[in-house]
Structures are given as structure tokens and as C-alpha cells.
Write a structure and sequence with these properties.
Elements: E1 29-30, E2 38-39, E3 47-48, E4 54-55, H1 58-61, H2 63-87, H3 101-109, H4 118-134, H5 146-152, H6 156-168, H7 195-198, H8 207-234, H9 240-251, H10 253-258, H11 261-264, H12 267-291, H13 295-299, H14 309-327, H15 332-340
Antiparallel strand pairs: 1-2, 3-4
Length: 343
């Protein structure tokens, strides 16, 4: 199925689930059974409408639509809680997880599509991180899906730290619980790509991670270009302080907080940084293209030339782990199309 239009591909904020309401006020209450949807706090109390007639709460009014999915979630959560309690009795790392694999391809095929509720993405990320802690060796490859979820939540720095830990930590230490785990924090997100991400063939590394690093660099590039355009458009028309605020918003929280010098730098310095990030984007794209030239077609659901089955399967796996985060980044596909046209 082709991805939605860019304007439709974004996460929905927490909101009252009643279709006729949809308020995003801060005092929403979560359904206590399925623990997935929210309703207005005030709506839990009976209230009189304009005619003086008592009306049911919004959750009660939505019961017919809500009940089936809620009961399914409730039963699934109960089964999960039971298994979780059993697994946490083990003090030693769980080295292998094999039994669920026959179902995982189906689960992951429909997992993580563009759009949806932000709370769903947060919970999916939480569960994947917990599963990784349960089995740090990660023979099932869950680590490939994690960065995309971080990016969808605008946690690019956490995604980059996560991937850099795997890129710089020898695999033999992954499952040794006495060694530091995911302890890379606040790595320089503007640094040049690690050799392990751009040199093929190389040590065992996740191609999905390289694609996610590429997306982070694309997001940085888009923000820097927007800031550059704002500087050019508003220079001499509004105070410099206002331009700085606009630039801070456009480059994003990650760059603005980790590298405030970018906001204070000259237009020439910003232009130099844009060229540097462009080079990084090209290096990462070339790395992926050498390993699987079908990535740019598959990530956009475009027709692609005939290819060996293994490469196409790998391309689909890349798409599964990365599509939503790409689709929810306005302008990202355009950059990929431009790069694809050069190869």
C-alpha cells in the first residue's frame, strides 16, 4: 500500500476518543480496562445538556464502538502481565528467543505504519526496550526497529545514542550483564558517520541502523536549510533576536540544544555546516545503495527493477523498520528521490 501523503503522515496527540469531541486537554483519563484510549475527565460525570436532560459520559456514549477492541486489549494485557511475571523470575540473561519467531513476520508486517497515536508508539518503544534488556544478545533483531520509533517521537538524540552503542560495542559484550549497556549519551549528532556505517563489506552491522542514521542526517539538513532560508528572507525586515528565535525553532531541539553556536554563527558558518551535512547524507546513501540498490524504491513504494529475492527481502525489512519515520518527516522523500536520480 502506498504511503499516505506527507500532510497526513503524522502522529496524533493524546485526545478524547469520542469522535464528536477529540479535545486534547491535559486532564484526560485513560480507559482502565484496555489502557489505550482516553476520554475527557469532565465527561466521566453525568451532565445536563442545553435542554436540561442528563447525558451519559463520553466513555459510556462511545461504548459500542470501543468495547470490542478494549476487551481484546484487556485480555492481551492480562496474558502479557502473566508472562512478564514469569520471565522476571529469571535472574540470568535469556540467551535465545525462538518460539515466537513463526508469528513475528506477520506481526512486524503490519507493525509501525505511518500515523496513529503517539501513546501507541511510546508503548511500543517501551516494550521493545524491555525485551532487549531481557535478551541483550538480540538474536531476533529487535534493535532494528527501535531507532525508527525514537525518531517518530522526535527523540533523534536517543536514537543516535542507541545506534552508536551498537556500532561501537563488540557483539561479544552485548549479553554480558556486568558490562555497561546502552551507556552512550549525548553523542555528537553532527559528527561524520562512523566508518562501520559507510564501509562495505564491514563488520556485522544493521543496515536498518544505517538507514535510520541517514534519516537523522536528512532531518538535520532540512532544519538547517529552513533556518538558512529564514535568515535570508527576514534579514533587515525584523529584529535579529526574532530571527534567532525562528532559526532555533526551525533547526530543531536536538541541534539547538547540543550546538547553540549554530544559532549564533554567521550565515557563512551555517552554509558551511549545510554542505558538511549534505556530504554526510550522500555518504550514508551511497553506503545503503551499494549494499541494496532497491532501498530508495522500496521506502517510497515505487516500482523497482527485477532483483535477486534476497536483496528485495532485505529491502522490505528496511522498509518495515523505517517507513513510518520517513513518511512522518516532511521533505525526506524528496531528498531520497534527488539522490536516487543521481545513481
Amino acid at each position: 500500500m502506498p504511503p499516505q501523503s506527507q500532510s497526513d503522515c503524522k502522529l496524533s496527540p493524546r485526545a478524547c476518543e469520542l469522535p464528536t469531541c477529540g479535545t486534547t486537554e491535559s486532564n484526560l483519563l485513560r480507559c482502565s480496562a484496555g489502557k489505550a484510549v482516553y476520554y475527557c475527565r469532565a465527561s466521566r460525570l453525568s451532565a445536563a445538556d442545553s435542554s436540561g436532560t442528563l447525558t451519559a459520559s463520553y466513555q459510556a456514549a462511545d461504548r459500542e464502538r470501543h468495547t470490542k477492541g478494549c476487551n481484546a486489549l484487556k485480555n492481551t494485557r492480562m496474558a502479557y502481565a502473566k508472562e512478564d511475571k514469569t520471565l522476571r523470575k529469571y535472574r540470568d540473561p535469556i540467551w535465545e528467543l525462538h518460539e515466537p519467531l513463526r508469528d513475528w513476520d506477520i506481526m512486524l508486517e503490519v507493525f509501525g505504519g505511518p500515523g496513529g497515536h503517539v501513546d501507541s508508539v511510546k508503548e511500543a518503544l517501551y516494550h521493545l526496550l524491555e525485551m532487549l534488556r531481557l535478551s541483550r544478545s538480540d538474536n531476533t533483531g529487535l534493535r532494528d526497529t527501535v531507532p525508527g520509533l525514537y525518531i517518530r517521537l522526535n527523540m533523534d538524540q536517543a536514537a543516535y545514542d542507541f545506534m552508536k552503542w551498537y556500532a561501537t560495542t563488540d557483539k561479544c559484550y552485548w549479553n554480558i550483564d556486568t558490562t555497561p549497556y546502552l551507556d552512550v549519551k549525548n553523542a555528537d549528532i553532527l559528527e561524520d558517520p562512523l566508518d562501520i556505517w559507510i564501509v562495505w563489506p564491514g563488520p556485522s552491522i544493521s543496515l536498518a541502523h544505517v538507514a535510520a542514521v541517514l534519516l537523522i542526517k536528512v532531518r538535520i539538513l532540512l532544519g538547517l536549510q529552513a533556518a538558512q532560508n529564514a535568515t535570508r528572507a527576514f534579514k533587515g525586515t525584523i529584529p535579529a533576536e526574532i530571527i534567532e528565535i525562528i532559526r532555533s525553532h526551525l533547526v530543531g531541539r536536538i541541534v539547538a540544544s547540543s550546538r547553540p553556536d549554530i544559532l549564533l554563527g554567521s550565515p557563512e558558518k551555517l552554509a558551511d555546516l549545510i554542505q558538511r551535512v549534505k556530504k554526510q547524507v550522500r555518504l550514508l546513501y551511497e553506503s545503503i545503495n551499494r549494499y541494496n540498490p532497491h532501498f530508495s524504491y522500496l521506502i517510497q513504494d515505487e516500482p523497482y527493477p527485477e532483483a535477486e529475492g534476497a536483496l528485495v527481502a532485505l529491502g522490505h525489512a528496511l522498509k518495515r523498520d523505517n517507513l513510518a519515520s520517513w513518511a512522518e518527516t516532511p521533505g525526506a522523500f524528496e531528498i531520497i528521490r534527488a539522490l536516487g536520480a543521481e545513481f
